[in-house]
Each structure stands twice: as structure tokens, then as C-alpha cells.
């Protein structure tokens, strides 16, 4: 007799494999058609990066750092001297049985100079969608180039969100990744220092990293945190604690439900609007914002919310819209010529 | 080993483009240690160089950080020069994988189980006792060897292959690794004449991991000597990008070995698959060629068409035997249904 499910899966298309042991004692590995890196197919070349190498940037400093939101946790950070860093591009999983289909569209192929990923989950690792000169995958260490410094701080992925919906049991049930005990439990927190600002991209890190990680994350100007109203990754309560602990002047929520990009109920339900509105906040009507240390001087945990503003057209197809029957085209009887 | 006893693995087939590390048995704990304590082990004062075939080298710093350079694969698209390799790159562990450029013989990162990848690096990365600097430049387009010139190469790949206007696969990053006073340059497939600014920044070096083979399809012996000896004053040079039987396809790009290049200089034919030395060990060397030959740090299956190997012979009656699995369907008491 089939075992009764403990809790129904909120993820559309999720098919938990019955063979999977609860504590991963036996890992079932996929047979992979390994395509791997596809940068050879890129049309652009490394001219911009060579210029940044020789000249320390690509333009005179504009004195401001530019942030552009691309949905999910994807953020492009442009340094004052014009170098474009991109964090956490997203895609649907290679195999829908790994958590189902999450997105109703693809993140568009996007230019940047350097692509970063925080960890190897599909909502963060689609570096093949970046037209980038270089990729630093799950980077750990200190990286200096042109007018910025990026520190990759290695820690672990969140496992227990403490949200009312996405408990550890539910997450384990709905994400039957082949490898949950291994790299897919790692995460890198990025600290980006440029233009006099200290910016943190949290990835999907756990809420309670060890003290030596916190020591590196002090006096933060901008914290990009995966917080949503349903607490899919960080709950609003944990986001507050983290922002306070880092002394963040500005908090930018990411990893929330965005209509047209995220499929409803595919592991999320809510945006982060309630989180933003319950705190000192600014609701943006644009996908791009610039910051300098001067403009955020008086802020303390001020939430700046991009909402559903992204720099590309949302072109998802909704099947429910196609409720009329299309006219059939007339067939041209080409075969008559052979009569 | 009795192959009939091996179970069919419980697998499902998944095409993976891009990142595949979610299924690799690897965690970032060694790098957390490097980040926390500065090194992974107490320094042994020596750098280790291991060879994996083609131009794949693993550098192990004195403090234990394992950096794998340019693992290979067959390019996913056979139009990109056809099949180059007879063997898949081994699924080994490394702390960091570095790829110099987007060609199949250099970007098989997905074969390596590594918590982090630096793909086409420009700028400086510091992790543990390693400082890795990438100098962005261009791929060789005219090798000036005796077999083909750049125009033939351009025809073979059917792509414009030199600046301006080349695409990403004709770019290359030269990699400089600095650790405990060692300066190690990994050339990738870089052109022979990078701008003087890059050569000035590279300065004098200890170890030159080069792309020199006797056919010179990337770096000719002449260019290798000029770069390594005259420009960078390398103490030790390792040839790379040469033919290893069982790994390289014999007809791919006319590739041969680098024994002649080694013999032209002070040299050591290494008998092992890895070599370790301190700064003191190599202080008197001047462009000393250390040649791994076919000694790669994994088991390569070599087919017995060229040399006689001692292969075990088992009779077919003994192994695998005459197993008639279909007899479970045999009708009882008669020959046919």
C-alpha cells in the first residue's frame, strides 16, 4: 500500500522519488548528459575586461553604485567606474523532478562583465544565461579588480526557515535534489566593496552563520536579503535580525514571488510588500537605483523594494488566456501539382 | 572483477547545461578552513605539480590548497574540431578549478568535483596561501609552426579567430599563481606576443606551465624558449598541450609529444605523476624542462595497438560464461509454448 504523504507538496510538478531515503543514506545519482560550460558560443569577447584591467575601469567614476533587479535573487551591480557584476542568474531546473517548474519564462540572456553565483541551485546558478567575460562560480576568497573588491565568505545554505509553511520537513519533501547532503547545502555570502559602499548579497545562506562570518559583515550599507512575506527563505523576523546584526542602512528584499516570472505556488506564494510596508520603506517604480554613501547616510534598516520592476519584458504565457478557439488556417494543397 | 555481479545503477538521465555541481559529492568545508585558518594544513614548504594530460595541471600550495588548471573534455558540439579525446577527464577533487578560455580542451570544469570555479579570470583572487591573478588577453591565432598557419586554423574552425571582433572562445587569460615566494605562470593557449604591459607584470618567474609541444600547434619550441627563457627567466618549465596515448585522439590537430623540446634543454624525464619542490631545490635551475611524458595522475586505458601490454586473458567459458537468463520463461514439460 502506498504510504500516505505527511504533507501535500505545494510545488507544482513535484514528484518525490519513492526510493529516496529520508536521511540520504543512499544517494540516487542522475546519469548526466554533461554539456557543462557553453561560453564558447558567446558572441562577445573580453574587450571590456581587458580595458578594466589596463585602465582600472571603463569610464570616469560617476561616484555612485547602480543596482538593477532581475527577479529572484538576480542583481546587477555596476561599479562607479562602469564594471558590471551580476549575481545569481536563475533558470528552471534541468530536470523538473527536482522541485518542479518554477518559472514561466527564462531570464533573458544578459550582458555583464563578471558573473557570480552563491550556490548551485537553479534559482541562483544559471551562469550560461550571462554573456559574461568571466564567471566566478561559488567564489570563496578575496577578489580585487578594477574599482571593486568582492569577498566570498563560505558558509551553508538555509535548512530550517522557521516559517509557518516552509519547514525543514516540507523543504526536504518538495526538493528531492540528488545531492542534498553535499554541495547543494553550501552557500557563499558576497561582500562587495565599491564606491565607498559595503554591499552584501546573502544568497540563500542560513540565518545563523558562525561568529567569524558576522565579524566580516559589519558596517554594511546595503543588504540584499532573500526575504518574502511567506518566509520562503528568510522570514521577515529573521531578515530584521540579520539586518540589525550587520548594521545595514538599506535592506533590499529579493527571492519573492513576482507575477509573470514565478509560477504561482511553485514554492512561493507572496511578494515582500507587507514586509516592506511594515518598516520604514521606499517602494520603487523602477528596476534600477543608484546609491552613494551620501544618499543613504541617515538610513537605518530602510527597506527599498523593487516590487515587480525588472529591466525586461515579462513574456510568460498563461494558458487560461487562450479560452477562444483560433480560426484554422486554410491548407494550401501543394500536392495537387503531382496529380 | 565479475562484471555480471555489478548492479545496474538506479539512475535517471538528465541533460545538464552549465553548472552541474549540485550532484557532485563535494562540500566547501576545506575552503571554509582555508578562509578561517589561512591554510588547510601546516605548510610543507614545497609546491606540488601533478599532471592530468593535455594541459591540465594541479598545483598544490604548501598550505594544501589544490588548484586544478584547465581540465579537458570533448566539446559538446562536434563541429568544434571533432572528437579530440579518447578518455573522459577523471572525476577528481580540487578546491579551485581555473579555466583559461572557452575551448573544450580547457573548460571541462563539469568533470571536476570542486566547490569553486574561476572561469576566464581577470584580476586577483586570494584564498588560503594562494594568490591567483588572471591577465586577460587573447588566444593564439597564428602559431607559426611548420604544419599550419593561422589562416588554415581559421578555416578549420570556420570562425574569425583573432582580434578585433573575435568571440569569447578566442580570448585567453594567463594565470599567475603566487604562493610562499613561488611565482607560477600557467600560459593556457595565449598568443605568443601579449602586450608588453602583461609581460612586465609577470616579471621573472619560477615555474612556467607552458603549451609547448614538438608540433607547436599552440606554442612552438622556439616561442616557448623565447617566452620562458628570455622574457620570464623561468627556472623550471613544464611542457603541456601535447599528445598522451590513450587520452588524445591521434588524428586531432596533428598533435605529438614534447620529448624533443625536453632534450633540447636541461631536462628531467619524470617517472612519477607528480613532483614537489621547494624554492631551494630549484634555485640553480635555468629553464630546466621537467617532462611528465605519459605519466598522468589517473589510470588511462591504453588500447594495445601500439605497444604490448600484459593483459590478463580469461577464457570465455569461465567469464562471462553461458548464462541463459531467458530460460525462466521456458514452458514446463515441453520445448515450445
Relevant terms:
A: 339 residues, Metallo-beta-lactamase, Chain A, eight-stranded mixed sheet, six-stranded mixed sheet, globular, B: 337 residues, alpha/beta, 21% strand
CATH homolog superfamily of chain A: Ribonuclease Z/Hydroxyacylglutathione hydrolase-like
Give the N-terminus to C-terminus distance of chain B in angstroms: 38 Å
Order of helices and strands of chain B: EHEEEEEEEHEEHEHEHEEE
- What's the total number of strands of chain A? 15
Count of the separate structural domains of chain B: 1
CATH architecture of chain B: 4-Layer Sandwich
Q: List low-confidence stretches of chain B.
A: none
SS strand fraction of chain B: 15-25%
CATH class of chain A: Alpha Beta
Principal-axis shape of chain B: globular
Widest beta sheet: strand line-up of chain B: 7-8-9-10-11-12-15-13
How would you characterize this protein structure?
The complex is a heterodimer of chains A (339) and B (337). Chain A has 339 residues and is of the alpha/beta class. Chain A has one domain: Ribonuclease Z/Hydroxyacylglutathione hydrolase-like (Metallo-beta-lactamase, Chain A). Chain A is 11% helix and 24% strand. Chain A has helices at 47-55, 168-174, 211-216, 236-246, 273-277; strands at residues 31-36, 65-69, 75-78, 84-87, 110-117, 130-137, 141-145, 148-156, 186-194, 197-201, 222-225, 250-253, 281-283, 288-291, 302-305. In chain A, strands 7-8-9-10-11-12-15-13 form an eight-stranded mixed beta sheet. The N and C termini of chain A lie far apart (62 Å). Chain B has 337 residues and is of the alpha/beta class. Chain B has a single domain (23-329), classed as Ribonuclease Z/Hydroxyacylglutathione hydrolase-like (Metallo-beta-lactamase, Chain A). Chain B is 12% helix and 21% strand. Chain B is built from five helices and 15 strands. In chain B, the strands form two sheets. Chain B has an eight-stranded mixed beta sheet. The radius of gyration of chain B is 23 Å and the shape is globular. The relative contact order of chain B is 0.13. The model of chain B has no long low-confidence stretch (mean pLDDT 91). Chains A and B meet through strand 1, helix 1, strand 6, strand 7 and strand 8 of A and strand 1, helix 1, strand 6, strand 7 and strand 8 of B.
Amino acid at each position: 500500500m502506498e504510504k500516505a504523504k505527511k504533507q501535500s507538496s505545494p510545488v507544482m510538478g513535484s514528484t518525490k522519488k519513492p526510493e529516496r531515503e529520508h536521511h540520504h543514506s543512499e544517494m540516487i545519482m542522475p546519469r548526466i548528459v554533461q554539456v557543462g560550460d557553453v561560453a564558447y558560443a558567446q558572441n562577445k569577447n573580453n574587450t571590456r575586461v581587458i580595458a578594466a584591467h589596463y585602465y582600472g575601469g571603463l569610464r570616469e567614476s560617476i561616484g555612485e553604485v547602480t543596482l538593477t533587479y532581475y527577479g529572484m535573487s538576480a542583481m546587477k551591480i555596476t561599479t562607479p567606474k562602469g564594471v558590471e557584476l551580476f549575481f545569481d542568474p536563475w533558470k528552471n531546473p534541468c530536470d523538473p523532478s527536482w522541485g518542479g517548474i518554477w518559472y514561466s519564462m527564462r531570464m533573458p540572456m544578459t550582458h555583464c562583465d563578471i558573473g557570480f553565483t552563491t550556490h548551485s541551485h537553479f534559482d541562483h546558478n544559471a551562469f550560461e544565461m550571462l554573456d559574461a567575460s568571466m564567471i566566478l562560480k561559488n567564489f570563496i576568497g578575496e577578489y580585487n579588480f578594477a574599482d571593486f573588491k568582492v569577498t566570498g565568505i563560505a558558509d551553508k545554505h538555509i535548512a530550517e526557515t522557521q516559517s509557518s509553511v516552509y519547514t525543514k520537513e516540507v523543504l526536504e519533501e518538495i526538493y528531492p535534489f540528488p545531492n542534498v547532503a553535499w554541495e547543494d547545502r553550501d552557500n557563499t555570502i558576497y561582500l562587495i566593496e565599491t564606491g565607498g559602499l559595503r554591499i552584501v548579497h546573502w544568497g540563500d545562506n542560513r540565518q545563523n552563520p558562525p561568529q567569524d562570518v558576522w565579524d566580516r559583515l559589519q558596517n554594511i550599507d546595503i543588504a540584499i536579503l532573500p526575504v518574502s512575506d511567506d518566509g520562503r527563505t528568510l522570514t521577515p523576523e529573521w531578515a530584521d535580525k540579520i539586518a540589525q546584526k550587520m548594521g545595514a542602512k538599506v535592506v533590499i528584499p529579493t527571492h519573492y514571488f513576482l507575477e509573470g516570472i514565478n509560477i504561482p505556488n511553485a514554492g512561493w506564494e507572496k511578494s515582500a510588500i507587507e514586509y516592506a510596508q511594515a518598516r520604514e520603506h521606499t517602494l520603487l517604480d523602477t528596476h534600477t537605483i543608484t546609491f552613494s554613501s551620501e544618499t543613504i547616510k541617515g538610513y537605518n534598516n530602510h527597506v527599498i523594494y523593487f516590487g515587480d520592476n525588472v529591466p525586461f519584458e515579462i513574456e510568460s504565457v498563461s494558458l487560461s488566456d487562450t479560452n477562444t478557439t483560433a480560426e484554422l488556417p486554410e491548407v494550401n494543397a501543394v500536392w495537387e501539382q503531382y496529380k | 572483477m565479475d562484471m555480471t555481479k555489478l548492479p545496474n545503477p538506479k539512475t535517471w538521465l538528465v541533460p545538464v547545461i552549465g553548472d552541474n555541481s549540485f550532484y557532485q559529492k563535494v562540500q566547501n568545508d576545506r575552503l571554509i578552513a582555508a578562509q578561517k585558518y589561512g591554510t588547510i594544513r601546516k605548510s610543507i614548504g614545497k609546491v606540488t605539480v601533478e599532471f592530468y594530460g593535455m594541459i591540465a595541471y594541479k598545483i598544490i600550495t604548501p598550505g594544501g590548497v589544490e588548484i586544478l588548471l584547465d581540465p579537458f573534455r570533448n566539446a559538446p558540439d562536434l563541429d568544434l574540431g571533432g572528437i579530440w579525446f579518447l578518455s573522459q577527464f577523471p572525476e577528481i577533487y580540487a578546491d579551485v578549478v581555473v579555466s583559461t578560455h572557452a575551448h573544450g580542451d580547457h573548460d571541462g570544469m563539469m568533470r571536476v568535483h570542486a566547490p569553486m570555479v574561476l572561469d576566464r579570470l581577470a584580476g586577483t583572487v586570494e584564498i588560503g596561501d594562494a594568490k591567483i591573478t588572471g591577465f586577460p588577453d587573447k588566444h593564439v591565432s597564428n602559431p607559426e609552426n611548420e604544419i599550419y598557419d593561422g589562416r588554415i586554423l581559421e578555416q578549420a574552425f570556420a570562425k574569425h579567430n583573432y582580434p578585433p571582433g573575435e568571440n569569447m572562445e578566442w580570448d585567453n587569460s594567463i594565470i599567475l599563481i603566487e604562493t610562499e615566494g613561488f611565482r607560477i605562470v600557467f600560459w593556457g593557449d595565449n598568443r605568443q606576443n601579449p602586450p608588453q604591459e602583461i609581460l612586465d607584470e609577470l616579471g621573472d618567474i619560477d615555474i612556467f606551465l607552458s603549451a609547448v609541444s614538438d608540433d607547436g600547434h599552440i606554442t612552438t619550441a622556439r616561442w616557448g624558449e623565447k617566452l620562458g627563457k628570455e622574457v620570464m627567466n623561468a627556472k623550471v618549465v613544464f611542457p603541456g598541450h601535447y599528445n598522451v596515448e590513450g587520452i588524445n585522439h591521434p588524428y586531432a590537430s596533428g598533435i605529438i609529444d614534447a620529448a624533443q623540446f625536453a632534450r633540447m634543454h636541461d631536462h628531467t624525464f619524470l617517472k612519477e605523476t607528480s613532483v614537489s619542490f621547494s624554492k631551494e631545490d630549484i634555485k640553480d635551475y635555468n629553464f630546466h624542462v621537467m617532462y611528465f611524458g605519459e605519466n598522468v595522475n589517473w589510470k588511462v586505458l591504453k588500447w594495445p595497438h601500439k605497444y604490448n601490454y600484459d593483459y590478463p586473458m580469461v577464457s570465455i567459458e569461465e567469464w562471462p560464461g553461458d548464462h541463459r537468463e531467458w530460460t525462466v520463461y521456458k514452458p514446463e514439460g515441453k520445448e515450445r509454448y
